[in-house]
Amino acid sequence: MMNSKIKGYLNGAVAASTYGLNPLFAIPLYGAGLTPSDALLWRYLFALCILWVMARVRGQRFAVPRRALLPLLVLGLIMGFSSLLLFESYNYMDVGIASTLLFVYPLMVAVIMALFFRQRISAITMVCIVVAMSGIALLNEGADGSALDPVGVALVLTGALTYSVYLVWIDSKAFSQIPTLILTFYVILSGSLIFVARCAMQGGTHVPPSPSMWACAALLGLLPTAVSLICTSVSIHCIGPTPTAILGALEPLTAVGVGVAVFGEALTARIVLGLALIIAAVTCVVAADRISPALLRMRRLFPAFYHRLRHHR
Description:
Number of domains: 1
Order of helices and strands: HHHHHHHHHHHHHH
Number of helices: 14
Radius of gyration: 21 Å
Number of strands: 0
Helix content: over 70%
Largest sheet: none
């Protein structure tokens, strides 16, 4: 029997890595003539089929409280809008940079909690925000020295903000009684309405033109969507949200690796430094609640050492 912690860490790593595969399957669909809305519509439809089968196999019911229907609809639209902004940003910048910029969402969650829920922002969080902004500044130029398209930057940062709102809201009591699998199903179902509307405005939905493109659409729904969401839930259950969020750093690293290895994107020293600053800043934020207790324990166990360390600082 696998240890619960090992199971949690493995699922967290799989969740982050599979989400980083979004561009691996989306970019070929763009090349085949599909728009971001087309790719996302097929992604969500395949994910819905997978989640429906899983729910049926587990014997879970799809009934939800009537009072939760409108919040679920709005929550799904927020999630869909966030996905659309990220996929649109792939048309304006390298996929690795886009995925790393999206990874500032934990910092945005901290700011939202401070502004609207009176949660205090610690000194560590403030420093990390400055470090992350420095990393973003380093990414403000492409590998050839040209400035990043401001439209692409605005798209992905707005997507990160939208996703932050989604994360804050989905943790509310309104959804606490709904099983994770069913909640995810209805969120994706509601979010797909955005892509249906967008495709209708564009004159219809483009169908993947070949078996390989159908495979890309199916894998887009399977790996970065269904597998990633399910593994995230398992990881949070086994090891908690903080270690799971730390493992989320594998998402932009995976996307950068895909961009360099598959799509031939350049990787300069400045870009590497920018990526490292953003990932380090976010990791420190999500790990802060573990760092402080560890320092407190060290102070209690080794008071003389702690006093000497503080004196030298």
